[in-house]
């Protein structure tokens, strides 16, 4: 009966599954925030869950050094209009919610939730066959950063020092502050039989780095989190339970690994793997 139930869940995924969120961040007090595409949840230092920001459909999150949280709200205007709209919001450390980009038609452009220590933003510039990494400086100047063409830029993350790591289809690449591209690992994708519905662009999803610039990749297609060292060695550091798969990942300052997980029925949970190997599900 258990396997029948699992099979039903998987079959439902063919018609019910949406592109899951990747946003999971931590503030300076150790509170964790994550998206389930309907609201943003908070897990406090005692493990208690509560809704931090209601009624926002955001795939990504950003936490600044003052513990202000940023995200998007994206909506579809229905089949008759067949258009999209969005706004960008800020949830201040003192609990205030405000729109910092007002209601706007279409999708978000020239703005990102991937930022470095100085506040520079990074996103994929996909115009044309030669994709580049775009950077918007704090003074508003936009430039491209890489010295070679990229094929299919997916998830992007930045270290405080300004090094950028990104998924280029199935490969992990690093772009330094001078725009030089280095390939750290190739063919990181895998596919578990339970994840047959995951399309190629979403095989690899969220990224995070630790203080030693090891990179952690949520391998959504295989129910795994992989760690890539600065020297390019690849290790599987976590596998999620049946019917759950990682979409976002967070390396905490104390060495704990927090994993945002999604199920075929679009349920969301968070799993924490402590540095001593304990696994806690929220």
Textual characterization of the structure:
The chain is built from 1 helix and 23 strands. It is mainly beta and 282 residues long. It has one domain: Neuraminidase (6 Propeller). Strands 1-2-3-4 form a 4-stranded antiparallel β-sheet, with no helix packed on it. The protein has a 4-stranded antiparallel β-sheet with strand order 5-6-7-8, with no helix packed on it. A hairpin with a 5-residue loop joins β14 and β15. About 4% of the residues have low confidence.
Describe what is shown at a glance:
The protein has 282 residues and is mainly beta.
SSE run: HEEEEEEEEEEEEEEEEEEEEEEE
CATH topology, which one? Neuraminidase
Reported CATH architecture = 6 Propeller
State the strand order across the main sheet: 1-2-3-4
Cα(first) to Cα(last) distance is 26 Å
**Which term fits the overall shape?**
globular
Instruction: Give the tally of β-strands.
Output: 23
- Rounded to the nearest angstrom, the radius of gyration is 18 Å
**CATH C-level name:** Mainly Beta
List the helices and strands and how they pair.
Layout: H1 2-16, E1 24-26, E2 32-35, E3 40-43, E4 49-53, E5 62-63, E6 69-76, E7 84-91, E8 97-105, E9 121-125, E10 132-136, E11 142-144, E12 153-158, E13 164-168, E14 171-175, E15 181-185, E16 204-209, E17 215-219, E18 224-228, E19 234-239, E20 245-251, E21 257-262, E22 268-273, E23 279-281
Antiparallel strand pairs: 1-2, 2-3, 3-4, 5-6, 6-7, 7-8, 9-10, 10-11, 12-13, 13-14, 14-15, 16-17, 17-18, 18-19, 20-21, 21-22, 22-23
